[in-house]
Design a protein that fits this description.
alpha/beta; 10-stranded mixed sheet; two-stranded antiparallel sheet; 32% helix; 24% strand
Length: 249
């Protein structure tokens, strides 16, 4: 098995709380580091000394394993869970941070992981060249389009466009976080990027979750944004972060 290892934040089992696979059980592999620093991000991207790994899926009984984590450790855990809890997990979520920063590791890990379960990539939608080299290993791709009003980043549009051109080769969706500061032109620009490639790519409008767990957006504004997006695209959904509602990771 591969000698490649990676600094990771945590490995755990939970319900997917975002996007089109919301409600399905996944094994989450959360990688360290990110090339962006978005205002709303709830994930620590720095590399810790240890990775938190659940021993029993979904039971929040983590042990601390020294980084970097080796592939054989990850596979042994997944195989144990698959034997002990058959049929529970729909897929493996490769998330972060920004997991595509670990492209050399993923090039060796993904074929092995995918032989166990389908692979779901959660990404900030920036590293299009890296995605092109790994695209064949993903079954689902959830890419963000970062709006200036919520992320604080203003010059990412064309990188997102190039990323989506590649992502549509697999089951791709676009997710964008919105809040009360989000302006109509941002939704239009997002939809124009998507429709220039494929208007049938689903768009998920995700209201930002505040620290108290509430949605940071008025209901009327949510509906107005959905109406604007629906005039450009075939499928527009509004889905908050449902795992917060359930009190899950």
């Amino acid at each position: 098995m591969s000698d490649h290892s990676a600094d990771m934040l945590e490995i755990f089992s939970s319900i997917q709380g975002e996007g089109l696979l919301v409600g399905l059980r996944q094994i989450f592999l959360r990688f360290c580091s990110c090339n962006l620093h978005c205002h709303y991000c709830d994930t620590e991207s720095a590399s810790p000394e240890h990775c938190s790994i659940e021993e029993t899926p979904g039971r929040r009984d983590p042990v601390q394993v020294k980084n970097p984590v080796a592939l054989d450790q990850v596979v042994a855990l997944i195989d144990k869970w698959q034997r002990g809890w058959p049929g529970v997990h729909h897929s493996i979520s490769i998330t972060g941070g920004e997991p595509l920063l670990h492209h050399e590791t993923l090039s060796e890990w993904l074929p092995v992981l995918r032989s166990r379960l389908p692979i779901y990539l959660e990404t900030n939608g920036m590293l299009h060249s890296t995605l092109a080299s790994l695209i064949e290993h993903f079954d689902h791709i959830s890419m963000d389009i970062k709006l200036p009003s919520t992320s604080g980043h203003t010059e990412l549009w064309e990188s997102h466009r190039e990323f989506l051109r590649i992502a549509v080769r697999q089951n791709a969706l676009v997710k964008t976080v919105i809040n009360d500061m989000t302006e109509e032109w941002e939704i239009i620009r997002t939809c124009e990027i998507i429709s220039s490639i494929d208007k049938n790519v689903p768009l998920i409008l995700q209201p930002v979750t505040l620290k108290d767990g509430k949605v940071g957006l008025t209901p009327i504004k949510v509906l107005e944004m959905q109406e604007t997006a629906a005039s450009y695209l075939s499928e527009v959904r509004v889905i908050p972060q449902t795992h917060h509602l359930l009190g899950l990771l």
